[in-house]
Amino acid sequence: MQVFLETDRLLLRRFTEADVDLLVDLDSDPAVMRFLNGGKPTPREVVRKEILPLYFNCYERYEGFGHWAAVEKSTGDFLGWFEFRPPEDGSSDDVELGYRLRAAAWGKGYATEGSRALIRNGFTELGVQRVYATTMTVNRASRRVLEKAGLTYVRTFHESWPEYIDGAEHGDVEYELRKADWRP
Questions:
Q1: Angle formed by the axes of helices 20-27 and 30-37, to 10°?
Q2: What is the mean pLDDT of the chain?
Q3: Between the CA of residue 152 and those of 86, 121, 123, 149, what are the distances in Å?
Q4: Buried residues in 78-89 as b, exposed as e (16+ CB within 10 A)
Q5: Tell me, what DSSP letter sits at residue 84?
Q6: What is the C-alpha separation between 178 and 181, in angstroms, rounded?
Q7: Which of 94, 98, 109, 179 is nearest to 148 (CA)?
Q8: Across-strand partners of 85?
Q9: Which pLDDT score is estimated for 80?
Q10: Which is it for strands 94-101 and 130-136: parallel, antiparallel or unpaired?
Q11: How many whole angstroms separate alpha carbon 128 and alpha carbon 65?
């Protein structure tokens, strides 16, 4: 296992080809996918042929950035993933934070713990100047994680999505944390 980052309770590591079933299982939970696509599962072939290659490409293009599998240290269980990467064709000064965890891991502080570790690493080791994240306005749990990780609300915006997701009429929100405002 190639560990990228370690916290008190988490190991964040690179994804491998062997992780297809873990990602398919994660994306098959309607509760996990509710605010992403209305609860639809991601097909195995999409994970294998599109999602994992995207992750691998990011590891090659941006040293220290990407999607990281989150593993619980005490059990070795896969909990989900964290994203910490520049936007396509963007600068590594400006980095997107994201996360997707199994429902069984919700409410236990893992999302905040992993997010804080990635932010700390980004500001102290990777030269990141700004971390941002977006979520649906109605996704209160995700918004709370962002706030506990130190990000602050920037704006509400509306995007067109291919299919309606319950709550989309309220839009999405953007949060950010600038290095100058970060308090370790």
A1: 80
A2: 95
A3: 19, 19, 16, 9
A4: bbbbbbbbbeee
A5: E
A6: 5
A7: 109
A8: 96
A9: 98
A10: parallel
A11: 11
Find where tokens 């409410």 sit.
107
In three-state secondary structure terms, 139 is coil
- Helix, strand, or coil (residue 59): helix
Report residue 126 as tokens: 């990777």
pLDDT tens digits along 5-61 = 999 999 999 999 999 999 999 999 999 999 999 999 999 999 999 999 999 999 999
Q: Are 165 and 136 in contact (CB under 8 A)?
A: yes
Give residue for tokens 């040293």. 63
Which among 121, 20, 16, 12 is positioned nearest to 70, based on CA atoms?
A: 12
Whole-angstrom Cα distance, residue 114 to residue 108?
12
